[in-house]
């Protein structure tokens, strides 16, 4: 599955997150560590303010893959800001052309991603198979 963390704060105030693969606490590598990470991701998906959705590999590559993105938007769209995490630290952008680009990225992900219930089922299935 593609590696990316994408989070968006919708205008309504509820958190929306898309994450793959699981980056939960604990050790990394091996079946047990992966099972723990998937368990953590599944537990987080049960929280009222978090939505976890998987983008299947069958959808191919997606825009913005490879770095974490936080899209902060509010009641006044011209104050919206995108935070990009990179190797040299966080970057913030708020130019309209960049906001338009990241809105399009998030819209694509919204269409491509599985429903929260289907995502949770897949996460549980993969964890069970490990």
Question: What's the short story on this structure?
Answer:
This protein has 130 residues and is an alpha+beta fold.
Draw up the topology in text.
Layout: E1 4-9, E2 16-20, H1 30-45, E3 69-72, E4 81-86, E5 89-93, H2 96-112, H3 116-129
Parallel strand pairs: 1-3
Antiparallel strand pairs: 1-2, 3-4, 4-5
Helix pairs in contact: 1-3
Can you give a write-up of this model?
The protein is of the alpha+beta class and 130 residues long. The chain contains three helices and five strands; from the N terminus they run E-E-H-E-E-E-H-H. Strands 2-1-3-4-5 form a five-stranded mixed β-sheet, covered by helices on one side. The radius of gyration is 15 Å and the shape is elongated. The two termini are 16 Å apart. The model is unreliable at 1-24 (pLDDT under 50).
C-alpha-based Rg, rounded? 15 Å
| Total E-strand runs | 5
Q: Report the mean per-residue pLDDT as an integer.
A: 80
Q: Helix segment count?
A: 3
Biggest beta-sheet profile: 5 strands, mixed
The parts where pLDDT drops under 50 for at least 5 residues are 1-24
Helical content band: 25-40%
Write down the oligomeric state. Answer: single chain
Strand-pairing-aware structural class: alpha+beta
